[in-house]
Structure formats: structure tokens, C-alpha cells
Amino acid sequence: MSPLQACLLFSSALFSLGLIAVLVRSNAILVLLGVELMLNAANLNFIAFWRYGPAPAEGHGVVFVVFALAVAAAEAAVGLALVIALHRHQRNVRLGEARRLRG
Amino acid sequence: MNSWPLLSLLVLAPWSGAVLLGLRPGLGDRASRWLGLAFSLSTAALGAVLLTDFDPTRIGLQFVERHAWIRSLKVHYHLGLDGLSLVLVLLTAAVAPAAQLAGWGRAGPTRVPNLLLLFLQGAALGVFVAQDFVLWFTCWELSLVPAYFLIRLWGGPGATRAAYQFVVYTIGGSAFLLAGFAALFAVTGTFDFAQLAQLGRDGALAAQLGPWGVRVVFAGVLLGLAVKVPLWPFHTWLPPAYAAAPTGTVMLLTGVLSKMGMYGFLRLLWPLFPAQLQAAAPALLALAVAGIVLGAWAALRQEDLRRMLAYSSINHLGYCLAALFAVAAAAGGERPAAEAATAALAGLVLQLFNHGVTAAALFLCAGILEARAGGRSGLGDFGGLRATAPAFAAFAGVAFFASLGLPGLSGFVGEFLVFRGLFGLHPAAAVLALPGLLATAQFLLTAWRRVFHGPVQGAAADFAPLTAAEKTALALLTGLMVLPGVAPGLLTSLTNPLVTAWAGHLTR
Amino acid sequence: MTALAAIALLTLAAAAIALALRDLIHSALLLIASWVGIAAFYLWAGAEFVAFAQVLIYVGAISMVVLFAVLLTRPPTGPATREPSGRAVPGFLAGGAVLGLLAGAVLSSPLPAGTGAAPAFGVRELGLKLLGPHAGALLATAALLTVALLGAVVLAAARGKEDAS
Amino acid sequence: MHLPVQLTWLIPALPAVAAAVIAAVPARRPGLGAGLALAALAGSLILALLALAGALADPAARLIHTFTWFDLGHGAIRLGWLLDPLGTLLAVMVATVGLLIFTFSLGYLRDDPRAKQFFCFLSLFAGAMLGLLLANSLLLLFLCWELVGLASYLLIGFWFQRPAAARAARKAFITTRIGDLGLLLGLVWLQDATGTLLLFDGGRGVLETEALGALAGASTVGGLAVSTAIGLLLFCGAAGKSGQVPLHVWLPDAMEGPTPVSALIHAAPMVAAGVFLVARVYPLLAADLALASVPVHALTVVATVGAITALFGAAVAVAQDDIKRVLAFSTVSQLGYMMLAAGTGAWTAAIFHLLTHACFQALLFLSAGSVIHATHHEQDIRRLGGLRRRLPVTCATFTIGMMALAGVPFLFSGFWSKEAILHAAHGWSVSALPFHVALAAVALTAFYMTRLLAEVFAGAPRGHGAETAHESPAVMTIPLVLLAAASIGLGFLGTPWWPWLQSTLDPAFQPEPGGAGLMAVSIALVAAGILAGWSRYGRLPRTSPEAADPLARIVPRLHRALAARLGCDELYAATFGRLCTALAAATTALDRSVWDGCIRLLAQLGAYTGLVSRETDEDVLNSGFNAAGDGLRAGGRAYSRTQTGDAHGYVWMLAAGFVLVTLAVLLGGVR
User: Residue D176's closest chain B neighbor by CA?
Assistant: First the structure.
């Protein structure tokens, strides 16, 4: 098992954990945190491929992760604001009860 | 050499005045007037400093300020001043305070119009000293905003349409300009005028753009500038705009803003595309001569004083364009034409200054007439004014005869030098342009006769005497019409080395 | 490799426990630990700047936001209610399936071995890249952050009408 | 004591500065303005006399002073002053006549509230005129030339509230400007060809051998030598200023100004400027004489135009009824003589006639002014008459002027100068026609001047003005007497036996022998003219203003045509005037319809594109889209049932989709 594969397995595991959290938990905050974990897993992949990839001097992976971090920050801010809005609206943060979007 | 950032101050002083006026909404009319005048005079003060520190024997830019601005686009905050810029800065210094003073007698709000005038002044100064396209173009476009609002909000009848036409026309022109420079940047990677000019002289620009590319870009830039000056037949926005704009605005429009286009021709089009301009010059020369002659004919037909003066502006700027195109056409030609080219270019610069002052004075006179005739400015609305307002008639007479090219006043020297150069470079064009001179005399004297001579009638009967502000503005402009007429060396010495160098490029 | 294994184990464990806990405060704190683990991974991989950014953004900023959100949305009485258990089993099954698929894919793919040496890509190089070829994206990100901030403020502060309806 | 050439500028500057000062002093002090103007001009006269003395001390030497006006390129635009007999002599003449006219104006405009302005304009005029005469640079000359035009515009339009005066002023300016444009073009051409506009510059001036040779050697359009073309262009300016046919139309109209102005413009200075210019650039005009190949010599054109003008003016003057108009056309005719003389090579004779003409024409105009002043602005000779007794001094001076103009032999100056011209025309080798034309004009001149004299002074008063006339005050009559003396005396400066003037002006002048026969012919013609005039007008004076002119009874159609000035004004109005109006209208229409039309067309095009695209959208595309839309809506309704709004549900779907895709990739080998 090469280091790259190890890294990728690590990220896969993290991704799956996030996915399970998203699928199972009903608290909106935790769902959001699951999503964050999945995002982090993706970032891990970028770093791994940059580290062991063909052209590390170009630094594409790092640059991408930097942008992803910024976007994640934005996403977290908006997401948590949404959670607060949801809470104001239905007095709890249970995702299952937020069904206004039903078609 | 002064270590102050004089050119930045030059541009920012009127703008800071505008900001100051903008921040004080409750300011009274009186305070607004004085503030506007004071800040518009800043250009005169700084211009005097520049004039004393300016070294007329040097050809290149002086007072240079250069800082990186947007690194990734290689845009610089690059200001610089040569003889041509200095002459135009001095012109602005003369016209802008007069334009402020022109609004003193007018009823209605003063704060916002004065604010906009100051803004316009700063933008025009920015155009004259910017040496980087992005900066230059920003100022170029910024000048439209206040002009639009001034015409739209405080203009006479038909102002809405005229303002709209003015802005759409000129923005339409500048769109081509911008597109052209975007293409230039794409191939050269620089916005700096000096670097671009160097590339243009070497022919590298044409090589990089390809034979068709360079033509398209040239045409775009040409169109943008031609609308601004304006070159006949791109002039149709001008008479309505000049007829509708309030007096101070039209003074700046004709005195300063129309020079921006000419400045663009000299600073951008000619250095960047010498070969293309040379190829197109005969056709453009024909258009310029058409502007001279047809502008004067059209002025002969106008019944409204302002429209007549607007057409006379087209006529007078036609001389500048004709001089430039004749010089451009002669580049590398058979005739060793350095002397004629020098005369034409020196005449061009003189004509720029003189037309600015003269046209501003003429429009100021028209504005004074209008203010006393309840907004009318038709030639038939007056008569015998010289009897009821001799002082005003004297001022107006100087302006009329300066515009007509009477020796001893400013108009003559420029026109003589332009004709001298034009004849040396392109005799047929000079001969064809002569009827323009005749028609100019004809329409100016006809207008003079109808307004000032004959029995007293119309609004001339109870003509209120000139106010102190009007007298000051008129006296200032009159002085600037007499002085260069008697001693043109004051101006030509500033531009002589520059002009000689330009002409020297031709014979190389 | 051992360092990597340790980091991975710690991170995964913290994340797993965090997601299983019922008390949101605790799970948030544990998640912070997991994020620190990820930052450690970045350090291990030689991307110091990203590591610091991870610490600053996740450990510093997002965790605070999460804690605030938790505090603001905590039900007035008692701890969080129990999860409905009906989704748990299929959830774990699905997660396991995804993990299996990914692991299979990773292990079966012919991946490049890499140089092994940590690449020389420091903060200076990163800065040059960001303000050189990626200047446009940087500006766009700046705009995005600003807009997101504004949006978050609007969403979180939109009282009144929303409540009345 | 001679005037240093460096101080030449003082001569024109004194009146010019006086004009500026007068403009600045308050209107309440008219006397101050007049005094200042007189003093300044007197100063100029003294300086001009000093300059003349210097120039006469050595007529062949030219005193020049050159200075830089402004730098241009590697060179400079240079101007200069020149003191030679020609310029200084005319400067003395202008200053003297001007001084007399100024004095006369004191009386003439005593009651005019705007007298201050009048003296301001007069001073400006005198300054510009003196500058013109003493300039050593064609550019400086042109500058002063245009200022002279401005001053004459202001003076002709002095009573600007009269529409006729306002129109006449404008007409004068524009008509002369037509000629001036030719002059300007000539200057520009000269500058381009020689690189300078200085007349004399130590061998490099345009009138010096080197430049003249180069100019005559080069040829241009139509086979003309460059010197010919430039000379003709310069002559355009001279023709405009000196009222030569066909640019003479402004001159009679210029009578609308006050009479001293008429004297100033018609007699001495202004119209003389054109003749002076021709004399000044005579070497240039004559440069092509040696060339046989050129199609036309410049001087031939000058002589031809001069001959035509001389005859035209004299003929039209016969049938005019306004006292000042008769004199105006006589001026036109006399200027034609001068041009004729210059064209035939005798430019010294032209200047001689210019000097004598200045005196007697000023005398005539001022006498006419005296008549007009005395008769309360009555100018129609049919309403005058019988003024011999009421205005004895004026009558005497007018008679002297008339005799000088008509060329009454031996005593009067006009005789000698005209004799010199006829002599030159007689000896002209190109054609004898101008000589015969000039002879005809001599007879006509004597005839119409006798008519004028008889109508105004003989017989009985025929109008209220004439009946109540009183002699003018001394301030007006003294200048008249002085001018009358000069009209007699000046002629002896250039008699065939002692041609001092000619040889002073032109050191190379050689008097041609044998003029006695010619003199006899011209004396006979003058006598015939006077007799004919006397027999028609003096012997049987007109009895009432309405009575028909004797000439109208004999040749009514010719008389009508002459009275209408041969329809020149009408012709111009019908051709150039119409052309101007039409061009102006066409240009405006071009702007309105074509260029604006183009813009509007573009706008319309945009609008049409919009219209077409809208129609297409609605009829073609929309129907299709509507159908598709209906289908979509149905599909959407069906699909929307899957949208439970349950976030978890969505994530489930995502996960399932992910698994499916991954499986497809792994198992299906999709790359």
C-alpha cells in the first residue's frame, strides 16, 4: 500500500462518516457538520494528489484547497444562518419537519 | 524640481471641491458659488506652479508620477505632463473658472451644478495628464457623467433628448475605443502610452495584430475619437447638445471637452498607428476640410445663436484635424516637409487653446443674452444691442473677431500657421478650405449685424447691465484672446520642442 | 506511515464519536478535534499554509459559528430528543457501501507512487500563484465571501415579517 | 536728425496706444479723446517726417530692422520694419491727411454723443495704416492690413443703428475679405516657397534677387511661374482693398459712414493700401517679365483690371445723383488709373497719382462733407444747387479739387500725375488698348466732375437744405484750404522736367523723352469733357429736383444702366448670394436628413430587428414552446410528487445515485 493509497483510504473513511451523519442524524446542525466532513475529505484528496502527483511545484492542489476552504467558510456561515432561520421558523432544528419545499 | 505630486493635486483639487460640496447638502447658494469658484481656481494656481517649474526645452514627460495600480493587468497610476498637456491644462484653468462664474447670475440651485462642473473639470484634467490607458479612459468616461446630468437637469428646451443623444453617441464612440485598447492589451500586455507608442513606431503593433487586426483596432480608436472632437460627419450630436446645455456646461464642453478628442488624436492615434493613419489620412483630410467648409455653411443657415456657434466649433476644430491629417499624410513622403509640418502642428496646438478660449467666450456671451431674453437666443430676438449695452458689445466684439481670425487676436496666428502648414503639405486642401474662412466671416458678421446693429428691438431694449461676475469672466477670457494674439510666443515656446520633435519623426 | 496512521485514526475516531453523540455541544467539541487532525494531516503532507488555514477557518471560525448556532437553537428544556431509529440501519449500510466502493476503487487503481519527498511549495510560491494566474478567482472568492457574509447576516437577522407570517 | 529704424514701431504705436487709451477713458470726456487722437497722430507725423528725412538722405539704402515674433521649430517667425522712400513718403501723406481729417471731424461730429468712439476708431485706423506702410514683412503688413479692414468696418458702421450702414459695413468687410483670402494664400505660398516673409533681409528677403529668381524659375499649375501665381494672389488682396472690378461693390456703399470716414477710406489711406501693396511687391510682380513662356504676366492682369476699373468707375459716376457716390465712383476710377500705371511698369507714377489723389480726393470729400454738414445732411445733388454764394470757401476748395481730379492742365496736381500714367500706358508694349481706355476715362472724368460742380453750386437752390445753408466753421474750412493748397502744389514734385518724386522712389527711374504730343491730346480731351459737361449742366441749370437728367433724355437706357451701376450688386446677389444661401441650406439639409437620417436608420433598424424577432417569437417559436411547455408542465407535475421536501430523502437519493454511478464506472469500465 503506497502512501497515496493510505491517504485516499483515510479520506474515503472520513467521507463515509460524513455521509452517514448526513443520512442518519436529523439535527440540521449535525447534518451540516457531516457535509463539512465530506468537504474536508475532498480537500484531503487534493492535498494527497498534490503531494504525490506529477507536478507538485505547480501547487494546483494547494491553491484549490485554499479556495475550497474559503468557499467552505462561506457555506458554513450561510448554512448555519439557515439553521438559525429554520429554528426561528419552527422552534426546533429537526430537518425532517422542514418540508416546505414539497412539490 | 518640486517634489510634490503636483499632477495628482491638479486632478484631485477640483474633485475634492466636488466632494466637499457633495457632503454639505445644506450649503447656501452664496457659499456654493464661492466654493465652486475657489476650487476651480485651484487649477489656475497649480497651473502657474507647473508653468514656472516646467522646462520647455525638454521634450519628454515632466512631473511624472508612476505607481503600480493593478499589477495583474500591468495598470499603472501614471501621470505626466508635456507641452501639449500643459497648454491644455492652462486652457482648463482659464475656462473652468469662467464657466463657474457664468452660473452666478442664474436662478435655481447652485450647489449641485457647481459640484458637477468641478467634477467635469477634474475629469478633463485627468485626461490631459494620464499616461496610462486605463486611467485615461476612466477620466474620459467620467467626464460624461456630470455633462449628462448638467444638460439633462439644467438644460434648455430639448435637453432630455440632447443629453441622451450626447451620451449615447459619445459612449458608443468610446466603446469602440475601449474594445480597440482591449485588443491592444491582449497582444502587447501593456496600457502605457509611451510603451505603446514605442511599439507603434517600431511597427511591432501592426506585426502583432496582423494586417486586418490592426486596421480594425485603428478604426475603432479613430471612431471613438472622431465622435468626441467631432470629425464631420460624426458631429450631429453636437449642435443639439450645445444648444441645450446650460451656459457653464457648454463652455466646458466646447472649451475643454472637445479638446480631449483632439488630445486623443495626438497622444494615442497618431503615435500608435502612424502607418495606418498615414494610409487613411487623405480620406480623413477630405472629411476635415468638409467639416471646415460645410460647418461654416451650416452655421450661416442657423437662426439660433447657440446652434450657429456650435457649427462654428465644428468649423474651427476642422482646422486642427486638417493640420493633423495633413502632417500624418506627409510622413515619409517625397516633399521634405519638416518646416510645414512644424507650422501645422504648432498652429494646431495654438488653435486648440485659442478655440477653447474664444468659443467659451462666445457661448458665455450667448448665455448672457439668453439670461436677459428669458431663454431665447434666436438671432431675430435682438437688435441694436450695441446702443443699449456698449460694454457687452465690446467684449462680444472681441470674441467675434477673434473667432473670425482677425490678426492681433488669438484666432489669427493659429489659423495662419495651420494654413501655412496645410499649404506646404497639401496645397489643394488649403485652397479647398479657404471658403471656410470666408463663410466664417460671413456668418459671424451676419449674426453680429442682426444682434448688435440696426435699430434697437426685441430683448435688447431693456438689457440689464453686466454683473460683476459676468464682467470678470468676460474680461478674463478677453485678456486670453488678446495676449496670445499679440505674443503667441508665450504658448508656442511651451510646445515648440515637442512640435519640432513630432515633425522630425516625419523626415527621418 | 505511522504518523499518518495515527493522525487518521485519531481524526476518524473523533469524527465518529462526534457524530454519534447526542449532546450537540460535545459533538461540536469533538469535531473540532477531528478538524485539528485534518490540519495535522496537512502538516504531515507538507502543506503548511493550508494547515494553518484549516486551523484558522475550521478550528477558529466555523467552530465558533457552530457553537453559537447550537446555543441559539438549543431547545428550552432538556437535552436533544432521541433520534428516530428507523433510518439508522439503512444509513450505516449506505455509508458502508460507499466506503467499500471507494476503498475498492482506491486499492484497485494504478496510482502513481510519487516522489515521496515533500515538494518545495511554500507560502511565497502559493502567494505568487494566487495573485498571478489565479487573481481573478481570488477576486471572485472575495466577492463570494462578502456576499455570503451579507446573506448570512440577512438570513439570521430577518425578523419581523417572517415571524408575523 | 533722422529716426533710428529700431524706433519705427513708435510711428504706428502712438495712434494705436491712443486708440486703446481713448477706449478706456469715460465717454463723458469726448474732448479728451479727440485731443489725444490728434496729439498721437501729430507725434506720428513728426516721427514720420524724421523717418522720411532719413530715407531721403540716401534713397537707395534701405533701413531695415528685423525682430523675432515667436519661435517656430528650429526657426522663427520674424517681422520687421523698413524705412525707404516709398513707405515713409506715404506714411507722411497718411499722417498729414489723417491729421487734417481728424481736425475736420472735430467740427463735423461736434454734436455726436459717440464722438469718443469715433476718434478711437480713427486712431486705430491710422495706427494700422502706418504700420502697414512701414512693415518689412508681408506678415506684419497683412496683420495691419486686416486691422485696417476692421477699422474701416467699424467706421463705415459707425451709425450702426441705420440698417443701411450696418449692411454696408458687413459688405465692405466681406468683400475685401474675399480678396484678403487670396492675399493670405499668396503669403502662405510665398512662405512655403521661400521660407520667409521678410521683404528685404540682407539678400534673403522675398523681394531680393535670389528669391525672385527661384520664384520665377519654378512653374506651377497652368504653366504659370510661381512668382506669377503668388503675384496674382497678392493682387487679389490689393484689388479687394482698392476696389478694383469685380471687388469694387463695397466702396460706393461705404458712403454710409460719416463723411470724414469717406475721406479717410476713399481718399487717402485705405484704398491706397492696395496700390501701395502692388508698388511694394512690384519686383515680385515683375519677376516673370523676362519669361516668354508663361501664358500671362502678372502685370498684364494688373494693367487690364486697372483699365477696366478706370473706365467702369468713370462711366458709372456719370449717372449717380448722390454727391458722395459720384465721388466714390471717381475714386474707383482713379484707383483703376493707379493700377493701370503699376501694371504698365510705372509704379512710381502710380504712387505719384496716389499722393496727388489723396490730397484732392480728401479735399473733395471733405468739401462734400462741408456741403452736407451745411445743408443738414442733404446728399442728393438734385436737391442742392446754388451753393456758390452761400458756401464761398467750400465752393472754391471744391472747384480746386474738381480741377485737380479732372486734370486741368499745368496748375493742378492731378494733371501731372495723370500725365505720367498716360505716358506709361502709351509706352506699354503689350497692348495699346489700356491707353485708349484711359483716354476715354479722362474725358469722362472731366465731364462728370463738371456736372457735379454745376449741379451743386450753380443755379438756384432746389431744396430746403440748400436754401438755409451756412458756411461751416473754421475748424472745418481750414483743413479744406490746406488740402486745396496741397492739391495744387504736390503736382510739381513730378513734372516731366523735374521728376523728383519718381527718381526718389525708384533710383533706377529714367524719364522718357517726348510727351508733348500726348499732353496735347489729353488737354484736348479734358477741355472737351468740361465743355460738354458745362453745356449740358452749367449753362442751363436744373430747375427742380424732379427734372430729368439731360443725359437721360439723350440716351435713356444707357443712363438707366449706369445709374444702376451696371447691375453688379444685383448680379452678385443673384449668383454668389444665391449660391451661399443654397449651399447653406444644402449643408443643413445634409445634416438634418442624411447624417441624422443615418442615425435614425440605425435606430429604426434596431427597432425592426426587434419587431421581426418578436413576431417570429410569438408566431413561430412560441407555439412550439407552448406545446413543449404544456408537456413539461405535465411532466413537472408528475415529477414534483417525488419532491417530498424531506432533506434526508434528497440525501438518500444522492447517495443512491452516487453508488449507482460508481458501480457503473467500476463495473462497466466507463472511462
Answer: B438
SS3 assignment, position D141: helix
**Distance in Å from the first CA to the final CA of chain C:** 58
pLDDT digits (tens, 9 = 90+) for D602-634: 767 777 777 777 777 667 767 777 788 788 888
Q: Stretch D217-239: mean pLDDT, rounded?
A: 84
Q: What is the pLDDT of residue B1?
A: 45
Task: Please check the confidence at residue A103 and state whether its pLDDT lies above 70.
Answer: no
Alpha-helix runs per DSSP H in B302-389: 305-330, 338-372, 385-388
Query: Grid coordinates in use for B315?
Result: 468649423
C-alpha cell at C114: 510519487
CB pairs under 8 A between A and C: 239
Say whether the A–B interface has 3 or more Cβ pairs within 8 Å.
Answer: no
Instruction: Please report the pLDDT score of residue A42 as a whole number.
Output: 92
The C-alpha cell that represents B476 in the structure block: 478674463
CB spacing of A96 vs C84 below 8 angstroms: yes
At a CB cut-off of 8 Å and minimum separation 6, what does B136 contact? B126, B127, B130, B193
Judge: D663–C104 Cβ closer than 8 Å, yes or no: no
Residue to mutate among D188, D593, D602, with most B CBs inside 10 A, is: D188
Q: What is the pLDDT of residues B69-108, one digit of tens each?
A: 877 777 888 888 888 899 999 999 889 888 888 888 777 7
Q: How far is D359 from B445, CA to CA, in rounded Å?
A: 33
**C-alpha–C-alpha distance, residues B375 and B247, integer Å:** 11
Which residues fall within 8 angstroms of residue C103, CB to CB, at 6 or more apart? A9, A12
Give every CB contact of residue D546 below 8 A, 6+ residues apart in sequence: D382
Paired strand residues for C110: none
The span from the CA of D402 to the CA of D334, in Å, is 13
Chain-centroid distance, C-alpha D292: 33
B496/D73 Cβ within 8 A: yes
Strand B62-70 relative to strand D63-72: parallel, antiparallel, unpaired? Answer: unpaired
Q: What is the pLDDT of residues D120-145, one digit of tens each?
A: 888 898 899 999 999 888 999 999 99
Q: Do the strands B75-81 and B62-70 form a parallel or antiparallel pair, or are they unpaired?
A: antiparallel
pTM of the model: 0.75
How far is C-alpha B214 from the chain's CA centre? 28
Residues 6+ apart with CB under 8 A from A63: C126, C129, C130, C134
Interface test with D, best of C93, C101, C102, C109 (most D CBs within 10 A): C101
Sign of the dihedral through C-alpha A64, A68, A69, A71: positive
Residue B203 has pLDDT above 60, yes or no: yes
Chain D touched by A30 (CB under 8 Å): no
HSE-CB for B469 with a 13 A CA cutoff: 17
Record: contact D651-A96, CB cut-off 8 A: no
Top pLDDT among B454 and B262 is at B262
Q: Give Cβ neighbours of residue B97 (< 8 Å, ≥ 6 apart).
A: B37, B40, B41, B44, B473, B476
Q: What ipTM was reported for this prediction?
A: 0.65
Q: How far is CA B489 from CA B346, B492, D78, in A?
A: 11, 5, 12
DSSP B304: B
Predicted local distance difference test score (pLDDT) of residue C163: 46
Cα B249 to Cα B227: distance, rounded to the nearest angstrom? 18
Q: What is the pLDDT of residues B102-131, one digit of tens each?
A: 888 777 777 888 888 888 899 999 999 998
CB atoms within 10 A of CB D126: 33
Say if C12 is an interface residue toward chain B (CB within 8 Å). Answer: no
Quick check: B418 pLDDT over 80?
Answer: yes
Q: How many contacts (CB atoms, under 8 Å) link B and C? A: 4
* pLDDT at res. B427: 86
Question: Using the beta-carbon criterion (under 8 Å), do D143 and B412 form an inter-chain contact?
Answer: yes
Distance in Å, alpha carbon of B269 to nearest chain D alpha carbon: 23
